[in-house]
Amino acid sequence: MPGDKAPGPDGFTGAFFSKCWDIVKGDLLSAANAFHLLRTSNLAIVNTANIVLIPKKEGATSVADYRPISLIHSFAKIISKVLAMRLAPLMNSIVSPNQSAFIKGCNIHESFLAVRSTVRRLNNSRTSALFIKLDISKAFDSVRWDYLLNLLKELGFPTRWCDWVATLLSMATSRVLINGVPCAPIRHGRGLRQGDPLSPLLFVISIDPLQKLLDLAASSGCLGKLRGRTPTLRVSLYADDTAIFVKPTQKDVTALSRLLRNFGDTSGLLDNAQKSTVVPIRCGGLDLTAILTNFEAQTKQFPIKYLGLPLSHKCLRRVDFQPLVDKMANKLTTLEREAIKPRGPLKLVLTSQAIYSITSLSPPKSTLREIDGMRKRFLWAGAEALTGAKCKVNWLRSARPLDLGGLGVLHLGFFARALRLRWLWRKWIGRQSLELQAETPCTKKDKLLFAAATSFSIGSMPLRPSSKLNRIWTSDRLQARGWANQGHCPLCRHSPESAFHLLAECRFTKRLWKELSSWTANLELDPTNWEPSADLHQWWTNTAAVPSASKKGLRSLIILVCWEIWKERNSRVFNRAEAPLNRVLSKIKDEAGLWSLVGAKGLAIDDDMDDSNGTRLSGDALAAVFILLSDDAAAVVRCAATCRRWASVVSKNAGVLSRALPPLPTMALGFFHDQDTSTPRVRYNHNHNKRRKLLSAAADPAASFVPTAWDTPRHVLRVLSNMRRPSSPFAAGGARAVACRNGRVVLELQRHARDAGLRLSVWNPMTGDEAPLPPLSGDDKPGVYACALLTGEDLEEPPPTTRRPTSTSSPGFFRVLIVHNRRGFTALRTYSSDTGSWSAEARLDGRSPKKLKSDQLRELGQAVVIRGVAYWHLSLRLQEEEGGAAADALFAVRFDTPEPPAHVTSMPPPAFNYNFNRSYGLLGTTRDGKLCSIRAGFCAGYLSVGRTVWEEADDGTEGRWERKGRHVTFTHITLRCSDRLHLRWFCEKSGILFLTLLGDGCAYPGTFALNLATSKIDRVCDAIDDDACNSRSCFIGYEMDRASYLASIA
Questions:
Q1: What is the CA radius of gyration of the chain?
Q2: d(CA 904, CA 844)
Q3: Which of 354, 481, 600, 741 could cross-link to 789 by cystine, CB 3.0-4.6 Å?
Q4: 980-987 and 959-974 as β-strands: parallel, antiparallel, unpaired?
């Protein structure tokens, strides 16, 4: 505690405790220990404060012109100081990076520069926007305690910490000093005491949810997106000074007003309409009066005053700095009237007034000379006029340090440049804290001090001979030497790898080049603008030789990107570490910044495009939190708990922040099944080995949908329950679901005659979008078949569409694969939405049997799709009935290519010694995307489910099974040998397994949903008819796609 601060009601200062520590140490520590143990019955005696009124401005006349400052009792101040010292190191991780008040490493000038940079970017890009400077009414005095305490609990603060804060707040009393005499004590009901060391930190935490709410409103569409390629700063906070940017529309302004009102009602922090300001940016021709009808604030024009500094969308003029000169002149008059010695005020008062402005602004030299003239006159002449005879020392010599013979007076011109270089130094060492780095008030001459002093350019460096002569050790060159390797490109896993493909033709690489083209605003880097090239050398010549404003910078950037692509390729091959596209892009941006600092010319690095290093929740989770908000405090607290660095805070400070985020709703689940037992099906007469079809003209297939109420919001269930609306294909008569993936369902439409062809349709139940497929009739008509679906979400980049869509409502890109038998072989056909036609028939390759058994084909069931490959599980039960060995098989078909290759791979027995022989096998995926085999059976009379993991080998063709795995037994579900247990469907996104349990006298029949991650099992519905579910093709699971999920809860 500082020793010279004003004392509280006890009259003791920090100097007293330092001087008399040996005397008061025992009593003070005993009182502190009692507070730690919450023995606070007598705390009200020492938790008092005297309130003094400090004028906010000169000529204060009303109470609103004064700021109440609490002179707190020394013991209460010591306790608050201890809590503040423990909380301060964690503030960077708790609050948003756009809040720069009372945060270590942040300062007020960063907020000003970030706001000024956003204003100028919007003005230069001719983007219409409204800049709102929000003022919170009685900010510290109006915070609601219940809101603050709930917020601390949701952020993970322990209960004891919250009790300490609650005790300090609730047991505090204050007395107002009137003419030096304290009045009667006042007990507090809300607010934070100004003068308490802990109050600034608690207030920053209290107002931080406002920034979260504004970000969530922008991401969910409640606030419109500001036009521009670069992400725009939407809100900046410095304590209660809030700057907000919104679109100039009545919808956005009304939504913002409603959001601020709800936040104010919950937290107590209401905006002050009399002091709030709205400044239009490029809003010529708009009716601002109509737009601001529901938002009470003053309308002004630039320049305005923000954080005590002039803010403008253009360069400031000399007249804009005149208020600073006038303020210093008024201060100088006060000092002259008080007859104070000049040297102290010159350093502490006059110089500090100028330093605050020149830290983030560049005043004209004439303004600096005028300020220096006033300082010089005050130093040598005081209140009299300054003449040359009164100046005893040259002004430049006066600005020297004392040890060099000067007076230690700061030279504003030199010191202003030193302050500007401070911003470059902070950027050099990575100390800038705002997520959107602001432009620095530095000249080109200043920036040269932090660049290489030589004329060497990385772009002038010649290519390495290994790349120019095509000697990079890619898979094509390794195969030429006979060395074993995977063969496919490790980035796209689709095409053979070569140096040219890796750097220019790969789908992953093209997406990276396209992102870089958007980041640098350089169309030459967009792959769609490249000229055709035959090899790598020609591609480099064509790309690097295009006319550009900075050809050397373009070459440097191309070399840098190629180097990072090669490093990512090696990381995937040798370390099995796969980085997503945004991570590779972030590495390129960081490396480009370093190259620019060491002298690479022409690399236009825009710091505003840098990604945040913090951990973020997914976009659908954040949107779900925002949309589910209500007016109570707990809902706002849940929103505030979605901190961008939440994961790192919990992992690094698990002892202090021990609570986790509340669970968010999962995706909606359900399944389709054929309800009518008289549905026409294809069956076999095994005695005569002849196929016969059972047709029933009177009954049509009746497919039903059963929603699953497992961790699913009620409003989502209502949407799913209405899935069979009149416009759905089910109402058209006899549609049957045969495959499902990523929220799309493949439907088999009704066949009206024996020789009718196969008619399929891809349908999104949530949007109603449908895409009918060309029928397969005549010689192309299949009999028994298995179906798989691939959507655009399964590919890194869907292929470009080569045909015009037939309708405006389309479920997006997809491919449908059917596997069916011909005489003597099993055939494969695919339909692709980008071509609009079926492919030619393909056969199983040489490593597989030419033809699958018809019963095996019928019982394939669900297909799991991983990286463009569909995997089926061949039934163990069918092989046993034929007298074969008890070994399963894995049937795999790659159908992300026009001609699908396929093969059958045997699988070893399960790793568990349990009775699985009476169950179907099923395939699924683990959380890290590995293929796994799921089986169920009975163990000691109870239901048991086991899982074995599949790993891909290095050659990419065969696989190997891990013998290790896990199983779980459910003792509350009894199972007998006579019961029929069937694994139906595995939902890959949610990890839910559907299974049915049937049988005469079954103790617990029904359909169940099992979460393999948590081992939680719920009964979904009663047992479905045995005949209707005799085949796995009659049961199709469904998971809503993310886009429809967000649309349904909006």
A1: 36
A2: 9
A3: 741
A4: unpaired
3-state secondary structure of 505: helix
Q: Pick the residue with more confidence: 797 or 633? A: 797
Exposed (0-12), middle (13-18) or buried (19+): which is 61, by Cβ within 10 Å?
A: exposed
Residues contacting residue 610 through CB under 8 Å, at least 6 positions apart: 437, 586, 589
Type of residue numbered 991:
G
433 CB neighbour count, 10 Å cutoff? 18
Taking residues 513-541, report their average pLDDT.
79
CA distance 594 to 588: 10
1011, burial (CB in 10 Å: exposed 0-12, middle 13-18, buried 19+): middle
**Over the range 737-773, which residues count as b (16 or more CB within 10 Å of their CB) and which as e?**
bbbbbbbbbbbbbbbeeeeeebbbbbbbbbbebbbeb
Q: Which of 246, 250, 244 is nearest to 288 (CA)?
A: 250
Report the distance separating Cα 421 and Cα 430, nearest Å: 14
- Residue-wise pLDDT for 64-111, tens only, equals 788 888 888 888 889 999 999 999 888 888 888 888 888 877 778 888
- Determine the 3-state secondary structure of 1006 from DSSP: strand
Note the pTM of the prediction, 2 decimals: 0.45
Q: What is the pLDDT of residues 533-542, one digit of tens each?
A: 877 777 877 7
Q: Which two tokens stand for residue 856?
A: 């095996």
Hunting for tokens 């060309």 — which residue is that?
774
Asked if 63 and 51 count as a contact pair (C-beta separation under 8 A), the reply is no
> Quick one: which of 617, 712, 716, 606 has its CA closest to 665?
712
Specify the residue for token string 């009372």: 102
Task: Give residue for tokens 């040890």.
Answer: 403
Q: How far apart are CA 18 and CA 396, in angstroms?
A: 42
Which of helix, strand or coil describes residue 826?
strand
Q: Which residues contact 932 (CB under 8 A, 6 or more apart)?
A: 923, 924, 925, 926, 947, 948, 949, 950, 965
Q: Which amino acid is at 806?
A: T
